[in-house]
Amino acid sequence: MKKNIKKLLALALSSALLLAGCSSGEKNGKDEQKQGELRKYKLGVNGTDHSAWEDIRQRLNKQGIDLEFVEFADYIQPNKALSSGDIDLNAFQTEIYFNSFIKENNIDNLTSIGYTVVAPMGVYSSKVKDLKELKSDKPLKVAIPNDTSNGGRALKFLESLGYIKVDESKGNLPSVLDITEYTIPVEIIEMAANQIPASLPDLDFGIINNGVAYEAGLTIAKDAIAYEDYKEERMRDYWNIIAARKEDAEKEDFKLIVKEYQTDATKEALDRQYGGQTIPVW
C-alpha cells in the first residue's frame, strides 16, 4: 500500500513538473513572438507614389517599427484623419499650410515633429520657354492655386519675379485683394491646384505647387521656366513636416521615425523618386 502511494506521489510530481515546463515554454514562446512583432503605425500620405517612404519603412522594420500607408487624394482629409485618431502620423504638407489649416478648422491637438523636404513652386507654360518671351501689351493670364497657403505663396513668388507688389503686412499669406501694384499687367485666375496643369493651353503661365506638377508629369528640372529660390528666409515656412497628435509627440517610436527619415539613405531614396524635384532640409 505504501509503495503504491509513493508511486502515485512520484507520478503526480512528475506530471506537475512536466506541466510547469510546458507552461513555461508556452509563455516564453509567446513572449518571443510578442517581442518579434512589429509596432505598427498608420501614416497618411498624399497621392499613390510613396517609394521613398517605402524605403524608410523597410529600414524601420529592422528597428521593430512598421508603417501602413494610408493614401489621400486631397489636402483636407489627412489632418482631419490624424486629429480624429484614424491615422497616427501624416507627411504631405508645408508648415505654413499646416498652421493655417489647424487654425481655420479649430484643430488644437496636432503638432509638427520634424522637417522633411522643401518642394519649390514652379512657373509652367505651354506657350513659351522663357518669361521674357511673353508680351505685356495686354494682361497676361496667370493661374495660381485657390487655397490660402499655396495661393499666398504663389503671389509672393509672382512678386519676386517682378509682376506685382503685395501688402507687406500680410506676410506670406497675402490674397489677391492685398496686391498693391501690378508692375506688369496680369489677370490672376484662382483655381484648384490640380486643375492648373490641364489649363496651361488657355494660360500664359501657371504657378504650380511641386507635388501637383509632379503628378501631372512636370518637373522643375525639365519643364519649369522659373522656380522659387528655396534659400530665401521666407521659404522656411514652406518646409514640409511630419505631423502627429500632441499627446504622441514625444513617443520614442516617432522620434525613431523622424531620425530614420533624416538620413543620407533617405536623400538617395528621394532623389530616385523625384529626380531632384524635392530638396532635403535637415
From TrEMBL:
<comment type="similarity">
    <text>Belongs to the NlpA lipoprotein family.</text>
</comment>
<keyword id="KW-0732">Signal</keyword>
<keyword id="KW-0449">Lipoprotein</keyword>
<dbReference type="GO" id="GO:0016020">
    <property type="term" value="C:membrane"/>
</dbReference>
<protein>
    <submittedName>
        <fullName>YaeC family lipoprotein</fullName>
    </submittedName>
</protein>
<dbReference type="Pfam" id="PF03180">
    <property type="entry name" value="Lipoprotein_9"/>
</dbReference>
<keyword id="KW-0472">Membrane</keyword>
<dbReference type="InterPro" id="IPR004872">
    <property type="entry name" value="Lipoprotein_NlpA"/>
</dbReference>
<feature type="signal peptide">
    <location>
        <begin position="1"/>
        <end position="20"/>
    </location>
</feature>
<keyword id="KW-0564">Palmitate</keyword>
